[in-house]
């Protein structure tokens, strides 16, 4: 089994700030979706192809995966996607005050690393400080989506987001799915694996109030 990257390692303390949005997207005024821990990038590339009304930003702590995702874009003619390397928490922190207010319309956490041992819980991506930073960056009415096949991790993430008081549990209305970042319900690599193995998926949506 692949070893997870420890996001608390000092090597991830520094990030390369993102370029201004106007330099990375053809039309930076479109609603922006952030996929945190975007892995291979395939999910986001598919989304960017299918849904030109949104911009997509993938954050990933494995530099090799980010470089590979960028390489995949070389042969593609899409101008609504960008991948950034680093600890998502620091990348998001850096975007606060730099991104136009209300541009980040949704954020997804798809099958984050579980970090099963209690002494490693702090390495789990969803932490109170990250949720606070997302709430500072995100438009009112924006959404956070979480998915996991690990029930205990799902409950940990749910508890952390629910405690923030900035988000309420929500179910998309049909019209909202059509206009969401993922209108045709594309699936991530991990999600396809989980479905193929008939494992259960735990998922929830939150709306910023
Ligand atoms: C289990 S994989 C899931 C990948 C993809 N979302 C999917 O559903 O197929 C979790 C990903 O999150 C990344 N990750 C973990 N902690 C992170 C952090 N603090 N910042 C950015 N990415 C992180 C990992 O490197 C890994 O690629």
What topology does this entry show?
Blueprint: H1 21-24, E1 32-36, H2 42-50, E2 55-60, H3 63-74, E3 81-85, H4 88-95, E4 104-110, H5 128-137, E5 138-148, H6 151-163, E6 167-170, H7 174-178, H8 189-196, E7 202-208
Parallel strand pairs: 1-2, 1-4, 2-3, 4-5
Antiparallel strand pairs: 5-7, 6-7
Helix pairs in contact: 4-5
Describe the protein in words.
It is a single chain. The chain contains eight helices and seven strands, in the order αβαβαβαβαβαβααβ. The chain has a seven-stranded mixed sheet, sandwiched between helices. It has a single domain (17-208), classed as Rossmann fold. The longest helix is centred in the C-terminal third of the chain and has 13 residues, at 151-163. It has helices spanning 21-24, 42-50, 63-74, 88-95, 128-137, 151-163, 174-178, 189-196, and strands at residues 32-36, 55-60, 81-85, 104-110, 138-148, 167-170, 202-208. The protein is an alpha/beta fold. It binds S-adenosylmethionine. Residues 5, 7, 36-39, 59-62, 65, 87-88, 110-113, 125, 188-191 line the site of S-adenosylmethionine.
Short descriptors:
22% strand, alpha/beta, Rossmann fold, binds S-adenosylmethionine, 209 residues, 8 helices
Describe, in short, the structure shown.
With 209 residues, the protein is of the alpha/beta class. It has helices at residues 21-24, 42-50, 63-74, 88-95, 128-137, 151-163, 174-178, 189-196; strands at 32-36, 55-60, 81-85, 104-110, 138-148, 167-170, 202-208. The site of S-adenosylmethionine has 22 residues, from strand 2 and helix 8.
